Amino acid sequence: MTSFASRAFCRVERLCRHLPVFLNTFLVFSITGEVSYLVVVEAPLEADQKKTEWSAYWKVVHLLAQYFMLGNICWNALLFLKTSPSIRGVFLGGEGMGQGWRYCYTCETHTPPRCSHCYDCKVCVLRRDHHCVFFGQCVGFRNYRYFLSCLLFMWSGLLYATLMNAEVFIVILKEGVTVHSILLLLIPWIMLISGQVSARAFSFAFIADTCVVGFLLVSAFFFFHLFLLFRGQTTREWYSSRRPYSLGLLGNLRHTLGLRWYLCWLCPLIPSPLPGDGITFQVTGSLEPSR
């Protein structure tokens, strides 16, 4: 009985850990589908423009732009999940341990500076920033590029979707700011269950609300991590107001995003080797390429 309960608990725990990933995936594709519908079917609103060459050209541009952002979001998220940020498989060399090294009793190994144990991932993580509950994995030295690139395209995609959904808010509020329109924007689920609105109106209102709320949340995360990137800090170091590892603006960009930091934003497939690929941790505790 105890064994069955333990297995059931592990399965529930694993499901809860991956639930945010499934939810985010559903929301991303729902927003993309709704914006595609707005572009292809609803825009432009004027009947005399719907079949013009200009209209067809801009629909193609809009669709290419949004699916470029969707592709980058999905591919960066996949690479983020596939890239392990842990110390497993990393050679921790040097003639001895320098200042800042610690011993992890859980992993039973010495760990370099900026490395800490994650009790969710159950492993020590190189240059650990935080454990991302939305992806169910830690953000560390080797996957930070994909995390930040995913945030960038999520931010730009949600900004685009919010602007495209401005017409939805205009249609809802066209008769004035009434109790019905305010409730539809604030609690569309209640309005649907009570039969006050159709499923179509609910879908547009819900996704429009999701775009606005998501844009505000992602903006906060994205600009906060840009701030940390420019300062050469992790989230843990920001809490303690320490900046012992800042290499200057250009050095921080190269150290975090790789030697081709100016290109890696365009596509996750562009190789941008990190300065510490093939890492060896020397006595000083700094990252240097192994020779």
From TrEMBL:
Bilayer-spanning residue ranges: 21-40, 60-81, 144-163, 169-192, 204-230
GO MF terms, alphabetically ordered: protein-cysteine S-palmitoyltransferase activity
EC number(s) reported in the record: 2.3.1.225
Keywords: Acyltransferase, Membrane, Transferase, Transmembrane, Transmembrane helix
Segments forming domain Palmitoyltransferase DHHC: 101-240
Keyword Transmembrane helix: yes
Main location group: membrane
Catalytic activity: L-cysteinyl-[protein] + hexadecanoyl-CoA = S-hexadecanoyl-L-cysteinyl-[protein] + CoA
Signal sequence segment: none
Membrane topology, from the record: Multi-pass membrane protein
Cellular compartments annotated: Membrane
Top-level EC class as recorded in UniProt: transferase
A Pfam match: DHHC
Keyword Transmembrane helix: yes
Cellular-component GO terms for this entry: membrane
Family: Belongs to the DHHC palmitoyltransferase family.
Domain notes: The DHHC domain is required for palmitoyltransferase activity.
Protein name: Palmitoyltransferase
Species annotation: Parambassis ranga (Indian glassy fish)
